[in-house]
Amino acid sequence: MIENKGGAGGGISYAYVARAEPGGNSQSPGMTPPGPILLFSIYRSDIPRFERLLVRALPDIPIHSASNPEEATPYLESTAVLYGWGFPPDMLEKMPNLRWVQKIGAGVDEIIERWPFGRDVLLTRTDGKLIAPRMAEYVLGAILDKTLRLDRARRQQQECIWEFFDIDTIRNLSIGIAGLGEIGSVVADTLRSLGARTLGWRRSPAPSSAVDELFTGEAALPRFVGACDVLVLVLPLTKETKGLFGTDIFAHCRRGMHFINVGRGALIDERALLSAIDANVVAHATLDVVATEPLPADHPFWSNPRVTITPHVCGPLVAEDVVPHFVANYEAFSRGHPLKNIIDLEKQY
Ligand code: GLV
Questions:
Q1: pLDDT tens column, 128-140
Q2: Which ligand 1 atom lies nearest to the CA of residue 131?
């Protein structure tokens, strides 16, 4: 049952409390549920789908939902578990009984800097493997758009011009993936399976079977970018990676490269990217993420024909894909077992 709790919006209510369907039982022997769950998404349209799956899996647990802090206010005091994204970090400070936060999403950069609890409250994230296949499709689409020269085809079509042109193939490309975690590895595997030569860069020296050549550590970054026809950023945003791609790194990039960012906007110095485009070092930039989202109306990216902007659509959090991961963690939490995808507060991811 989803009970309408009233609220803002002239009779339309957006805050809900979901309760058990009769006959449900989410408590098995050995489980001590931590307490009420608050589901939070700034996309209101997410709420019913996430809520339906949560109620079905955890029928005895009170589950409240909100898509902004005002709607969440009545539940902040009692909430033990926050499952959500897009909540302002200061909302956390009003949650005295919080024991665990699971981010809907793979990145925690927007809360980690202002995480108020230290180790007293557990912070986990969604497993990147659950969103990686769709992110790989996005990256592949961006690359093929260029190799197949679909922009030229569209131009010709507008003018009814039938004129042969050569197209390229991904098999001719050396594609670098910066960030070889759960998502970057799937992206690299996908591109390699189509014949691309894959290069990888990561900060730590851990090996990777997803790439043909691995570069590790910051000192290797200039050599890595210099070897890429296409560079794909899949890094988390941390104190170590913020602004990592600036003028000095673009200076080492291979001329005419395609730059794709599906990580976080603040990984790059946007002015340096624009200069690299002007200097023809970067032939095209495909950006799903930017430093300030939504991208301000007067930002030069909008009008630059060599920049493709998508509004952070890559890697959507599909309820059916990600809720089972939360539920498994919830059960682990209730039994005192280790959870998956715990954030390392030092590393910030
Ligand atoms: C999306 O950006 C995510 O963090 O998963």
A1: 999 999 999 999 9
A2: 5
User: Distance between terminal CA atoms of the chain?
Assistant: 36
**Fold adopted by 132-309:** Rossmann fold (3.40.50)
Instruction: Mark residue 328 as left, alpha or beta (left: phi above 0; alpha: psi -120 to 50; beta: remaining).
Output: alpha
Give the whole-angstrom CA distance, residue 266 versus residue 80. Answer: 32
Q: Which amino acid is at 297?
A: A
- For the stretch 270-304, pLDDT in tens is 999 999 999 999 999 999 999 999 999 999 999 99
For the domain 2-128+317-335, what is the CATH superfamily, name and number?
A: NAD(P)-binding Rossmann-like Domain (3.40.50.720)
Task: Select which of 125, 197, 264, 284 is catalytic.
Answer: 264
Distance 21 CA to ligand 1 centre (A): 32
In tens, the pLDDT along 102-117 reads 999 999 999 999 999 9
Concerning whether 325 is annotated as a catalytic residue, the answer is: no
Please list the residue range(s) of the chain that carry CATH number 3.40.50.720: 2-128+317-335, 132-309
Query: How far is residue 32's CA from residue 331's CA, in Å, rounded to a whole number?
Result: 9
Is 107 touching ligand 1 by the criterion CB < 6 Å? yes
Is 263's C-beta closer than 6 angstroms to any atom of ligand 1? no
